[in-house]
Hints:
By secondary structure, this protein is mainly alpha-helical. 56% of the residues lie in helices and 8% in strands. The two termini are 15 Å apart.
Amino acid sequence: MQQERLLRDIRHSEGYRQVPYRDSLGKWTCGTGHLLSPEDAEVMDRLTDKEIHETQLMQDIANAIKIATDFAGDKWDVLTEAQEEVLTEMAFQLGNRLHQFKNMRAAMLDDDRDKMFAEMTNSLWARQTPARLKHAINKWSSDDGLT
């Protein structure tokens, strides 16, 4: 996995806000797509520090890698770097909800790329974030992951 490219793509998709805001689902968020917990409300005034946001981003990426690795199972070892990044980007956005993509996972494990893309496309995630879907499909399909 190319960490710099992954970081660039996540930053591009998520954007950055120094001040906490409500995302499209009404959840408090700040930094680079970092979902705030109820405990964070007590210190919300301190959550404008860019260093805190960078630390949160690195922790969120590490968590997303764990979720993506678990999702892919044994398949993780044979995925291209770009494909690992696609799953990690999805896990960054969706968290453990990535595991709800059972049919997509089954198609991925069966090396059925067309079915996998169809399952990705036929989802609420795709309807809510069509640009991310397009990016994911293009990146997954590329040999070098550059899109």
